[in-house]
Amino acid sequence: MDILSAMGYAIASYIAVYAIITLIVAELIFSYAFRQWRKGQKEYNRMAAANSERREEMQERFRERRNKRKK
Fold first, then answer.
1. What are phi and psi of 55, to 5 degrees?
2. What is the dihedral of CA 28, 30, 34, 35, to 10 degrees?
3. Predicted pLDDT of residue 35
4. Has this prediction a pTM greater than 0.90?
5. What average pLDDT does the segment 21-50 reach?
6. Handedness of CA 42, 48, 49, 50 (dihedral sign)
7. From CA 23, how far away is CA 35, in angstroms rounded?
8. CA–CA gap between residue 32 and residue 39 (Å, rounded)
9. How far apart are CA 8 and CA 68, in angstroms?
């Protein structure tokens, strides 16, 4: 019976270590993916702000051209 309980403890510890390593690897993958997503989100927001600014400038130029034609 002593050999069986020793084998049981060995198997249980192996499963526990495997589970802990799996959780650590999953957390590393998740944190990397989250950082990449945030970096992409920041880039998207920066480009959206630049596009909005360009659009406003173009609208202002068109208004000026239209006002010049009316005069």
1. -65, -40
2. 10
3. 95
4. no
5. 95
6. positive
7. 18
8. 11
9. 89
